[in-house]
UniProtKB/TrEMBL annotation:
This is Geranylgeranyl pyrophosphate synthase. The keyword Transferase applies. InterPro entries: Isoprenoid_synthase_dom_sf, Polyprenyl_synt, Polyprenyl_synt_CS. GO terms for biological process: isoprenoid biosynthetic process. Coiled coil: none annotated. Keywords: Magnesium, Metal-binding, Transferase. Belongs to the FPP/GGPP synthase family. One of its GO terms (molecular function) is prenyltransferase activity. It comes from the Bacteria.
Length: 328
């Protein structure tokens, strides 16, 4: 299906997902449109920049384990995407990013203060919409939001003596896995699926979210701007040590020792940045990180075994294969 960059084998499911994502897109744009044209421009900035819409897709697929055509499903998809977009505005300020999804970041265009306030506005819009979905949805959204913020605090504070790899994976579970798990949960829940299915697909969502984010981290090193939506090596420039770097630094070869010298902090020198990327792309850290992505994708796929054998399950399996394959 074009909206997610994937083609699923079941034509009826693909058609339904394409229609559903179109409805989500319309509702999303309506949700970020305010009475003030300037607020609307800021709120729509990253919305118009596109994105994979992975979280809304997980909502729609989750709903296909029940009744996917209820209006609450689209509302829930808008809630999770608004929440995700809000975190991007805040992340770009904290990371001092200049590019997001191939376009100028909101903080670079509007300034840090406005970008932060826009993120707050999107969180508020998500809260308004989720309030219409009932107290259980509000409770789940609040707990998800708490995990997102906790993950950001944990990332900002650093390992503080903990194992850096374990710390990094724990951060990803909270910053990415939590919202993707809620996306899948909301879909099945509002689709009226059996509670056991709701719990199982939420568990899948968190594991899949880990594979998804780790795959993005590898793409930041290995891909060009068109593929990743941001300048290659952005994490290095911002001083963020992602899993391939952490694995490489744990190796005792000359390239790893040289890499350790370069990545003492943000790598802003262009020549050093290019050298670090070259070292990483050929490192044992990249090979090990690819294996970790495959491991999470395989674990997520195994979690699908308890779900009914319907086209949506096959589609989720396909997503796992796609995440594992795009970093080879």
């Amino acid at each position: 299906m074009a909206a997610a960059g994937l083609d699923f084998d079941d034509a009826e499911l693909s058609s339904a997902l394409t229609t559903g994502l179109g409805e989500v897109e319309q509702a999303l744009l309506a949700a970020v449109s305010g009475a003030d044209p300037y607020v609307t421009e800021m709120a729509r900035h990253l919305t118009y920049a596109g994105g994979k819409r992975t979280r809304p897709l997980l909502v729609l697929l989750g709903a296909h384990f029940g009744k996917p055509d209820v209006p609450e499903v689209v509302q829930a998809a808008v809630v999770v995407e608004l929440t995700h977009l809000a975190t991007l505005y805040h992340d770009d300020v904290m990371d001092e990013a200049s590019v997001r999804r191939g376009a100028q970041s909101a903080n670079a265009r509007f300034g840090n203060s406005v970008a932060i306030l826009t993120g707050d506005y999107l969180f508020a819009r998500a809260s308004d919409i989720v309030s219409e979905l009932g107290p259980e949805a509000v409770r789940i959204q609040a707990r998800t939001f708490a995990r997102l913020v906790h993950g950001q605090i944990r990332e900002t504070a650093g390992p503080r003596g903990a194992d850096p790899v374990r710390h990094y994976l724990d951060v990803l579970a909270e910053k990415t896995g939590a919202l993707i798990a809620t996306s899948a949960r909301f879909g099945a829940m509002f689709g009226g699926a059996d509670p056991a299915i709701v719990a199982a697909i939420a568990e899948f969502g968190e594991t899949f979210g880990m594979a998804f984010q780790l795959s993005d981290d590898l793409l930041d090193i290995a891909s060009d701007t068109d593929q990743s939506g941001k300048t290659p090596g952005t994490d290095l420039r911002e001083g963020v040590l992602t899993l391939p770097v952490l694995y490489a630094l744990g190796s005792d070869d000359p390239d790893s020792r040289r890499l350790a010298e370069i990545v003492q902090g943000p790598v802003t020198d262009d020549d050093l940045h290019a050298e670090a990327l070259t070292l990483l792309r050929d490192s044992v850290g990249m090979d090990r990180a690819r294996a970790t992505v495959r491991d999470y994708a395989d674990r997520a796929r195994a979690q699908l075994d308890v779900l009914p054998d319907v086209p949506a399950r096959a589609a989720l399996d396909h997503l796992c294969s796609n995440v594992a394959a795009r970093t080879r």
